[in-house]
Design goal:
The complex is a heterodimer of chains A (338) and B (505). Chain A is an all-alpha fold and 338 residues long. Chain A has 13 helices and no strands. Chain A is globular and about 85 Å long. The chains are: A mainly alpha (338), B alpha/beta (505).
Chain lengths: 338, 505
Amino acid sequence: MKQMRQETVRRIISLVLLVVLTGFFIATTDTFLSWANITSMLREAAFVGIIAIGVTTCIITGGNNLSGGLTMGMCCMVFAHLYKYTGMSLIMLVLISLLAGLAAGAFNGFVVAILQVPDFVATLSTGMIFQGITYVLAIRNQYGSITSEMIKNQTVASWGGKLPNGIYYVTIAWIVMSLIMQFFLKKTKTGTYIYAMGANRKSAEYSGISYVKIKMIAFIIAGFCSFVGAMFILGRNGTCDVTTGAAYSLQAISAAVIGGAAFSGGRGDMIGTFIGVMFLQVLRNGVLKFNMTTAQQAVISGIIIVLMLVFDAYYNEFMQKRTTRAAAIAREKEGKGK
Amino acid sequence: MSEKNELLFEMKNIEKIFAHVHALDHVNFDVRKGEVHALLGENGAGKSTLIKILTGVYSKDGGQIFMNGEEIEINSREDASEAGIAVIFQELSLVPTLTVYQNILLGKEISKFGIVSDKAEKAQIQELIDRYGFPLKTTDVVETLSVAQKQMVEILKALATDSRLIIMDEPTASLSSRESELLYKIINQLRDRGVSIIYISHRLEEVFNLSDRITILRDGKNVGVIEKEDIVPSEVVKMMIGKELSESTASRELSTSDAETALEVRNLTHIGYYNDVSFEVKKGEVLVLTGLVGSGRTEVVRSIYGADPYDSGEILLNGQVYKPTVKRSVANGFGLIPEDRRTQGFSPLLSVTKNVSLTSYDKIAKGGFVNAKDEDDLGEKAVHLTDLRPANPNVQVGDLSGGNQQKAVLGKWLTRDLKVILIDEPTVGIDIGAKDEIYNIIEELASQGVAVLMVSSDIAEVLRVAHRIIVMREGRIIKEFNHGVATQEDILLTSSGFVSEEEAA
């Protein structure tokens, strides 16, 4: 019998986890399945989800991106700062925020691929830079303390809106972007190269694929995702806080890992990450209904992530050993048959 | 026939010099169209250097390379594949999480506007698979395939780029006999289609069966090219070794042949690594396990030390059943000089003293605090015992030469009350002078009554230090030689598969 691939097993596990958890909350609370609760859950999930699209792509290349949420915060603040202190048109504000997101991605790519700093420490440090920029640009009152100021603009506010059926625009953006990215990863040359680079860098490079180019693409995609998330945050909150997005970086990584992306690279996709994001959201929502604290829910999701990582670390090794053994036993039999 | 003898590829007067040593000394080598040409030679004869020049990993220091009569320059892997040269690597170079067809076409996708046409790709690869009749599906994910199937994917990858010269480096090393048979068929098929193959293998029997010609390298020189009809196995082996060594240097008698048995291994088996291994080592004896890489020697030694598990059989220490764990082994007077000293033998940033004392903290540390005086004494002692140079125990081990690094590793154990020492390939990458010093240390240890179990592939070294020699092949003991009766030729023939188990017994 052929062994089940790590991806397949992980997909089954994450789906089962999501279904069981959802089923549990449906059975134990009355409000969980209400349309209002579902749409609001999908809205909250979408912010993490959009960041997780970029983060997953980085993880598939065999790297990581700890700066996703902080880049989002920076894009947000660039917009708010320029809105407050300049009279720029809305379109300019959006374009400059977009530029900030793409530049942050390119800078990550530069540090990782050209300066050869390992992804983890590189994006940890660049994340600090992006957060620092957010504080520098923060809106201050006449005494110099940071305040938040409402962006009173109809168009910006409309980004936080929803369809007549109650589904928020941000949810639609998340789903559409996930579908596009899934197509990109699975059906395009560049998508194939992203997997190849993550699973076996040498082999990819020998096939003429550029490491720098693939890393750049992945980080710039992540930067773009952070920008999109930032615009929807502005739409929802109508303001920008210095702490905006900071929590999303780790949540996005958690979602990717629960969904099957492996830090060793070459594994993971948007469907898995979607499941991962939904799992975290259902857990957060359901736990609130049980009057548990966010601290307690962090313990639960933390434990699940550790278990997933342990699984990733041992599954392939275990299967490898099993096949080696089976092959050796077959060889012995073959030898005696002669 | 005249067409068959047409040359495809030719290397003339190839030179490669590493640190004033001629790794390749004016080597001529050529391959005909549709020929299987084997490259033979002992480790270090220059085979891998030649292949690396041919594939653009190294650049040559002199000489010319011709393809189809035209002179070409190979300075990178791209140059090599442009010229139609492909390598099937020992350690496979596929992308494990992609499918068979994605791997074969990696970097050469069939696409429009960047979107890959899966259908066209699958059809093209299916056709390629059908043409050669490989048991593969285009959509199989590579990590689910057997080693033999992965090799087939690599071969297809080479064929898909119209490679005319395929290099196979020890392709059967991890294949079962049935899988090897299939590979031989594939090789014959490729030859019939006009593809040329450079074949490298330590298994002489298969080399002689498969190849149309063989070229023998020794000490960086081409010492002979032999047509298939003219192959005489024993002659070939003599050419590989060089000297006619009928008299071995292993004439060392064990001073006390009735010495007690220190270590005994009975029917030890670790499925997939080694099978039914039994031997004993007496106090003061040097027993060497030799054979090809992958014959299970290192694995046996690691199991005895407790670093790896075993499935069945038993280990006896001084006649008592012994269940090894690393901690227990250290406590019972075992020492291990591991195969790869750089990664397993020492901490490069620590001083000789620190490295040596690491294994002896049970003696010099009281309640978690290290006695600095004792530690320094230990370092001094190690330097003195191994004649380490520079004779300074405070030097970082990473800054020492290869030979002195190995002495530092030996020092870790020499300063302890040693009963059994397990030594794995102690002189790889060490210059000749330092080698001798290490042999002297080993002999000195044995004369003090320590039982020495050593693994080595260097036949000259085996004959130099061993009292007894055991040859392993594919996880089994094939033959045992006593002191003074083995020659280099015997050992090479036994380990490369010319003496079967029955003959040996």
